[in-house]
Amino acid sequence: MKKTLMWMAVVMLVGAWSGAASDVSPLGLVPEPVPPPDLRVNVWTDKAQYTVGEYARVFVHISQPAYVYVLSIDAVGQVRQIFPNWFSPNPYLSAGTHVLPDKPTYRLRVAAPAGVDHIQVFASKQPLGFQSGSEAQPFPLIAPDPDRGRVEVLGLIPEPVGYVTAWTSFRIVHQPAPPPAPPAPPVPCPPGWWWGPCPPSWTPPTAPPWGWGWYYDDGSWHVFIGECPSYARVCWHLGPDGRWRLSFRIHIGN
Q1: What value does the mean pLDDT take over residues 54-65?
Q2: Domain for residue 143, yes or no?
């Protein structure tokens, strides 16, 4: 099936991983094996902070051609693989700097909740046991939490294969809510109006160009077409000259 555009939500971790020190990877992979000679890897993002809804780019630099795998830990601790993936299944990269997404078939969109996201990269001279995802799960879920993630990741690295790893993090913030709309200004009453509430300022959809108006009765305004009802004491009438006229009916006695 043809691969379609995928909006991949960048996974996040709320707060710093409680077991991670500044020089320890988020997954706590210790002890680390002896790295292959002269193989170095680094990872970073194009921004240190993103607003929810923005698109992110992840950069990976390797000193030699190698197999590269990029993981992330989301807000609930799920460990997910973002490279390779169903849209870009080949983990073997040439020496130099590479950017993710590396194909136009997917993007990395930052999603809520706010917090700190950790991204970890592995590079090895030999392929590791990570899968490339499927159409149903294009970005494979490695484990539901970091503890299981550490076990699962170590199980995907056959001994005595050496690898190098690096990690980075960035902050995610919510987009500030737009300020509330100012209240609509009150509609001024017609000039000379002094009695009761202002007549309505809107035109009924069935009203003719003229010869209609509003009359006040039982504490509210009602529309009429033609002549003002005889029982109405106050009428606001639109005449053929396009002008509004106010009329009162005064009843004396019962």
Answers
A1: 96
A2: yes
Q: What is the pTM of this model?
A: 0.63
Q: Is residue 183 part of a domain?
A: no
CATH code at position 86: 2.60.40.1930
- Whole-angstrom CA distances from 158 to 12, 36, 38, 163 are 28, 14, 20, 10
In this structure, is residue 180 part of a structural domain?
no
Q: What is the 3-state secondary structure (H, E, C) of the chain?
A: CCCCCEEEEECCECCCCCCCCCCCCCCCCCCCCCCCCCCCEEEEECCCEEECCCECCEEEEECCCEEEEEEEECCCCCEEEEECCCCCCCCEECCEEEEECCCCCEEEEECCCCEEEEEEEEEECCCCCCCCCCCCCCCCEEECCHHHHHHHHHHCCCCCCCEEEEEEEEEEECCCCCCCCCCCCCCCCCCCCCCCCCCCCCCCCCCCCCCEEEEEECCEEEEEECCCCCCCCEEEEECCCCCEEEEECCCCCC
Return the pLDDT at 252: 67
Tell me whether the omega of the peptide bond preceding residue 183 falls within 30 degrees of 0, making it cis: no
Residue 251 predicted with pLDDT over 60: yes
Domain count, the chain: 2
Range of the domain at 61: 6-173
Do 23 and 73 belong together in one domain?
yes
Decide if 178 is inside a domain.
no
